[in-house]
Design the sequence.
C-alpha cells in the first residue's frame, strides 16, 4: 500500500510534548503549569446568554462572516480600546477561534516558497500553518535582553527578497513579551519599505499588565497591510467555545472569507451569541481576572527569582519564561526531571522555536496556592541540580 | 488611598490570612511597606476587623436568621441615625442598613430559634415609638455569603498541557 499522507503533512514535526503528557497523566499530585488557558470558568452572564439563545432556537448557521451584532460589537470594542476602525460589513470575519483566523490568514496570503518571518519564540501552530501553505517559516529572534520584543535590527537581519509576511504575537506566548505602540512604530518603516504584510495575533491583548494594551493596526502606516487576529478565549475564559475573529482591509478580508466559507461555513452560533454578551457586559469580569493574573504573576515571578531561577517580569499574557540555561542541562531535560522528580509540569522552551531554547514556560493561570507550592518544589529541585 | 491600597484591601477581603510576605509580592512592595499600609488602614477604620466566613448549617448548629424590615419615622436633626444606632446595640442584630424602597431600615437578626426572633421583634423592636411597621422574612437556606458560594460546584477540567 502507498503512504497516503501528503508530503506537506509529513513535514510538520511531531509534538515535542507527547511524552510529558503521558507522564503527567499517570501522576496524582502533579501541579500543571503547562496549561495554556485560563483556570476560570466563563463568566455566568455569558453562559446564560448562550443558554438563552439555544432556548430561543437560535441554532441555525449564521452568515459566513458571523452575526452582524457581534461584528458591530467588535467594531465598537476595537474602536474604543485601540482607536482602530474596521467596517463590520466587509472587514471583520467571526472565526472558529483565533486558531482558524490564523489558518485562513496564512492560506489567503502565502504562496509556495514565500518566506514568513515569525517573531520567535512563538505559538507552536505558526510554523506548521506556514508549512501547510508550502511557505518557509523564518524565525526572527526576540531576545531576553530586549524583554522579548521584536526589534528593528533583528527583523532587518532576516529579511530577504522572498520575505512576504511578518507574523507576530504580542503579548507573547510563551515569553510574556509585549510591544508598545512605539515598538510597533519602530518596525513599521521596515515593514513598509520591504512591502511586508503583518499578521498580528493579539489574543492576549487584554492581558497587558504594564503600559497600554496595543493593536498593531493602530499604527497608521501599518493599518492597510495588517491582518488583526483576536478572540474571546483568554480575555473572557472562553477557550472551549471556539470563537475568535479576524479583521483586515476589504480585499484581504474577502480572500480569507473564501476559505472560511468552505472550511467552516460559519463559527458556532451559540458561541457567537455568548461572545456578543461578553463584549456587551463582560468588561468587569475581564478586568477582575486580569487583576488576579497580575497578582499571581507578581507572586510567582518573585518567588521563582528568590528560589534562584532567573525569571524576567513578563508584561503580558499569563506565562513566566524562566531562564534555565545556567544548569548544564537542556530545557527539555529540566522539564522532564522537574516533572518526574517533583511533579511540576512545565513546557520546555525549545518547542516554541530556537529562541525558546534554555527557557521553560510556566503558566500562572493556576491558583495562588498551586503557584506557591510549585515554587517550593522548584526550589527543592534547584538545590541539588 | 492609591492603587496599591485598593489592591491590598481587595486581597484581604478575599482572604485575610494571606501572609505579609506573600501580600508584599502580590502588590510589588516590601513586607515592611505592606505592614505599614495595613496598620494605617486599620487605624483609619478602613479595615474594621478580620473575620471568618462560617457555614453554621454545615457545623450542625441550629440557628435561625431573619431579615427584618422596618418603617421608621425619622427624627428632626437626627434623621434615621439615632434610632438606627439604638437598634444596632442589640446583640442579635448582625447587620443594619438604611435602605431605599417601601421600608427604611433592614436588619439581619440571628437567634437560636424562631421564638426568640418573634420575641425580639415583638418586645424590643415593634414597641419603639419611631417604628411604624415591621416585616419579618425568615432565611431558609444560605447559598452565598460574602461572595462565597456555600454549595459544591464542579469546575471544568483542564488538560495538563495546552499551548
Sequence:
Amino acid at each position: 500500500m502507498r503512504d497516503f499522507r501528503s508530503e506537506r503533512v509529513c513535514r510538520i514535526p511531531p509534538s515535542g510534548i507527547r511524552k510529558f503528557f503521558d507522564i503527567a497523566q499517570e501522576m496524582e499530585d502533579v501541579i500543571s503549569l503547562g496549561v495554556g488557558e485560563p483556570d476560570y470558568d466563563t463568566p455566568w452572564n455569558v453562559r446564560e446568554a448562550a443558554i438563552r439563545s439555544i432556548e430561543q432556537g437560535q441554532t441555525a448557521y449564521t452568515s459566513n462572516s458571523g452575526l452582524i451584532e457581534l461584528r458591530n460589537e467588535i467594531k465598537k470594542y476595537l474602536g474604543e480600546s485601540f482607536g482602530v476602525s474596521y467596517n463590520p460589513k466587509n472587514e471583520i470575519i467571526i472565526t472558529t477561534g483565533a486558531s482558524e483566523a490564523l489558518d485562513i490568514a496564512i492560506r489567503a496570503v502565502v504562496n509556495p516558497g514565500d518566506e514568513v518571518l515569525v517573531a520567535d519564540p512563538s505559538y507552536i501552530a505558526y510554523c506548521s500553518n506556514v508549512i501547510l501553505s508550502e511557505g518557509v517559516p523564518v524565525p526572527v529572534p526576540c531576545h531576553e535582553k530586549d524583554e522579548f520584543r521584536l526589534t528593528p535590527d533583528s527583523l532587518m537581519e532576516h529579511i530577504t527578497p522572498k520575505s512576504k509576511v511578518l507574523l507576530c504575537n504580542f503579548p507573547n506566548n510563551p515569553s510574556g513579551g509585549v510591544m508598545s505602540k512605539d515598538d510597533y512604530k519602530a518596525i513599521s518603516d521596515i515593514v513598509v519599505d520591504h512591502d511586508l504584510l503583518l499578521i498580528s495575533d493579539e489574543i492576549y491583548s487584554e492581558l497587558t499588565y504594564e503600559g497600554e494594551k496595543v493593536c498593531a493596526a493602530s499604527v497608521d502606516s501599518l493599518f492597510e497591510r495588517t491582518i488583526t487576529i483576536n478572540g474571546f478565549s483568554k480575555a473572557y475564559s472562553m477557550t472551549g467555545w471556539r470563537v475568535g475573529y479576524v479583521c483586515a482591509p476589504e480585499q484581504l478580508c474577502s480572500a480569507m472569507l473564501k476559505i472560511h466559507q468552505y472550511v467552516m461555513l460559519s463559527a458556532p452560533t451559540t458561541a457567537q451569541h455568548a461572545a456578543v454578551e461578553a463584549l456587551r457586559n463582560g468588561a468587569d469580569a475581564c478586568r477582575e481576572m486580569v487583576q488576579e493574573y497580575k497578582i499571581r504573576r507578581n507572586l510567582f515571578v518573585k518567588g521563582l527569582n528568590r528560589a534562584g531561577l532567573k525569571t524576567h517580569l513578563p508584561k503580558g499574557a499569563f506565562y513566566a519564561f524562566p531562564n534555565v540555561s545556567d544548569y548544564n542541562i537542556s530545557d527539555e531535560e529540566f522539564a522532564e526531571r522537574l516533572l518526574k522528580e517533583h511533579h511540576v509540569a512545565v513546557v520546555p522552551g525549545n518547542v516554541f522555536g530556537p529562541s525558546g531554547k534554555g527557557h521553560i514556560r510556566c503558566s500562572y493561570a493556576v491558583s495562588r496556592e498551586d503557584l506557591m507550592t510549585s515554587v517550593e518544589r522548584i526550589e527543592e529541585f534547584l538545590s541539588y541540580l | 488611598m492609591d492603587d496599591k491600597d485598593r489592591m491590598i484591601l481587595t486581597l484581604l477581603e478575599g482572604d485575610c490570612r494571606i501572609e505579609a510576605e506573600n501580600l508584599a509580592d502580590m502588590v510589588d512592595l516590601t513586607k515592611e511597606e505592606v505592614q505599614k499600609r495595613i496598620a494605617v488602614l486599620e487605624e483609619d477604620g478602613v479595615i474594621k476587623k478580620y473575620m471568618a466566613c462560617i457555614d453554621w448549617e454545615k457545623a450542625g448548629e441550629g440557628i435561625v436568621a431573619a431579615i427584618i424590615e422596618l418603617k421608621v419615622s425619622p427624627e428632626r436633626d437626627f434623621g434615621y441615625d439615632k434610632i438606627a444606632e439604638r437598634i444596632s446595640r442589640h446583640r442579635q442584630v448582625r447587620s443594619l442598613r438604611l435602605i431605599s424602597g417601601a421600608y427604611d431600615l433592614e436588619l439581619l437578626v440571628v437567634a437560636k430559634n424562631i421564638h426568640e426572633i418573634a420575641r425580639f421583634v415583638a418586645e424590643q423592636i415593634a414597641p419603639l415609638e419611631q417604628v411604624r411597621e415591621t416585616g419579618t422574612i425568615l432565611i431558609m437556606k444560605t447559598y452565598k455569603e460574602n461572595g462565597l458560594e456555600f454549595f459544591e460546584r464542579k469546575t471544568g477540567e483542564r488538560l495538563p498541557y495546552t499551548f
In short: The CA atoms of residues 76 and 82 of chain B lie 10 Å apart. DSSP finds five helices and six strands in chain B. Chain B has a mean pLDDT of 94.
